[in-house]
Specification:
The strands form 3 sheets. Strands 2-3-5-1-6-7-8 form a 7-stranded mixed β-sheet, sandwiched between helices. Strand 7, helix 6 and strand 8 form a beta-alpha-beta unit. It has 365 residues and is of the alpha/beta class. It has 13 helices and 13 strands. Helix 1 runs parallel beside helix 7.
């Protein structure tokens, strides 16, 4: 389990180039980070994590299985997409189930690539995209709310809760604000999530810059960064052109290429890290001779629910978790060394799993 990220943007901003580059990059990472195309516009990649490689080397694991990230690429949106203009509207339903949405924004000038609105203004582009998503959300809610209103009038308790949440979601949308700004209580959150609204998702702004600005950004990306900070969104600087070149290189040439470009890592890594931070995700590991595997959970998840990510039976029959901190596992040479030094802990149902924990679950059938 990883997370799903929908990629949206206007035409000719480098969105598809970036999508292809990111998924090809993962494809070229050999067995550790496999890639497969589920549908023409969906790509699944393995999340790079150096810790997993180190754990596998110590345990002499036969197989390394990273956690997964799914990119859902949506055809370029244009003004009026929510009303059927362009191709993007046909694919909006694909991002209703994603965890976060990446807005790819053109932050470069190039006379050979026409901007659909004949200007370079990434923050305005973001507003156009978000407006179309808000209009689609409003249309979806207004179509669904009438039957719920009728049912709520009969005294149906569940319908009353649904109606209250729908009305709260509609309020900001009618004011031109995304659904994620609605005042939803913790108790209402499950019903709010069930609405699968496009603008209820956390946002990552991806600034597609020219090659020379890939390391530090430019004036365009600076404006986007200000917008992201004001909204509590994430912001990542990526050059789709560099990512495309990187994706086509053999493994042995990649490190040198990144150094020449003044980069420490490929854009995929930065985008994943931004997504994990935005969604407050952490990773725990299961390690043995057969496989070393990474699992993604939300920060604050307790032992039984973390075990349930592997299999629902693990959660139902959870007894305890044998737990070793990543640093202890590595510094003490693995499970045996950790046990001998008293660094393996037996954690119960109330234990909150920490990032990097190496775990073995005990459960009753």
């Amino acid at each position: 389990m990883g997370f799903k990220c929908g990629i949206v943007g206007l035409p000719n901003v480098g969105k598809s180039t970036l999508f292809n580059a990111l998924t090809q990059t993962a494809s070229a990472e050999a067995a550790n980070y496999p890639f497969c195309t589920i549908e023409p516009n969906v790509g699944e990649v393995g999340v790079p994590d150096d810790r997993l490689d180190k754990l596998a080397a110590i345990a002499k694991s036969a197989q390394i299985i990273p956690t997964r990230l799914t990119f859902v690429d949506i055809a370029g949106l244009v003004r009026g997409a929510s009303k059927g203009e362009g191709l993007g509207n046909k694919f909006l339903s694909h991002i209703r189930e994603v965890d976060a949405v990446a807005y790819v924004l053109r932050c470069f000038e190039d006379g050979d690539i026409t901007h659909v609105e004949n200007r370079i203004d990434p923050t305005a582009d973001a507003d156009v995209v978000e407006t179309e998503l808000m209009l689609a959300d409003m249309d979806s809610l207004e179509k669904r709310i009438q039957p719920i209103e009728k049912k709520a009038k009969t005294g149906d308790k569940e319908s009353k809760i649904q109606l209250a949440v729908m009305e709260k979601a509609l309020a900001p949308l009618r004011e031109g604000k995304p659904a994620r700004t609605a005042q939803i209580t913790p108790e209402e959150m499950p019903a709010f999530r069930a609405l699968q609204l496009l603008t209820s998702k956390p946002v990552v702004y991806v600034c597609n810059v020219e090659e020379s600005a890939a390391a530090k950004g430019n004036a365009f990306s600076d404006k986007v960064a200000e917008k992201a900070k004001a909204e509590g969104a994430a912001c990542v600087i990526i050059s789709a052109k560099i990512e495309s070149e990187f994706a086509g290189l053999p493994d042995e040439d990649r490190a040198e290429f990144l150094t020449e470009m003044g980069l420490e890592e490929p854009g995929l890594n930065r985008l994943i890290r931004a997504g994990y931070s935005l969604l407050d995700l952490v990773t725990y590991f299961t390690v043995g001779p057969k496989e070393a595997r990474a699992w993604t959970i939300t920060r604050g998840t307790k032992g039984p629910a973390a075990a349930g990510v592997i299999h629902t039976d693990f959660e139902k029959g959870f007894i305890r978790a044998e737990t070793i901190a990543y640093e202890d596992y590595v510094s003490l040479g693995g499970e045996a060394g950790a046990k001998d030094n008293g660094k393996m802990r037996l954690e119960g149902k109330e234990y909150v799993v920490k990032d990097g924990d190496v775990m073995h679950f005990r459960f009753a059938n």
